[in-house]
Design a protein that fits this description.
The chain is mostly helical. Helices cover 80% and strands 0% of the residues. It contains five helices and no strands. It has helices at 3-31, 35-59, 63-85, 93-113, 116-120. Helix 1 (3-31) runs antiparallel to helix 4, helix 2 packs antiparallel against helix 3 (63-85) and helix 3 runs antiparallel to helix 4 (93-113). The radius of gyration is 16 Å and the shape is elongated.
């Protein structure tokens, strides 16, 4: 998988999270979500829009964007697991299912961008491949 394919896939995955989060806001409007649902869905939508933008920057070789995506793609699925396991999180079952899908999509990003070839394309300053 070449660099363009990697970042195209990452953008697609983050765009899927964005669309899913927007759909979640729509569901919350119909079924009447509590403030936790609205806050989480809005935050995930905003973050995924930012991550789509960062993926574009990383595709152009910006190491700082890559590092941010690496951090988020590892940390976010951990946060999702905590939401799924919390017995009284305030999230309805339908939103926990939506968050599970979000977690899988973001974990897929982590798998793709933590491969050796991708990491090698973003060496730390002062280090040569």
């Amino acid at each position: 998988m070449d660099n363009n394919q990697v970042w195209r896939l990452v953008r697609i995955l983050f765009a899927a999270v964005l669309l899913l989060s927007i759909a979640t806001l729509g569901v919350a409007a119909v079924v009447g979500g509590n403030w936790v649902v609205w806050l989480r869905a809005a935050a995930v939508a905003a973050a995924s829009a930012w991550l789509v933008s960062l993926a574009g920057q990383a595709a152009r070789g910006r190491r700082a964007a890559y590092v941010r995506i690496r951090f988020v793609s590892v940390a976010a699925p951990i946060g999702v697991v905590l939401i799924l396991l919390a017995p009284d999180s305030g999230y309805p079952l339908w939103m926990k299912a939506e968050q599970a899908v979000v977690g899988v999509l973001v974990a897929a990003v982590a798998v793709v961008i933590n491969r050796r070839a991708v990491r090698a394309a973003f060496p730390k300053r002062g280090k040569l491949g």
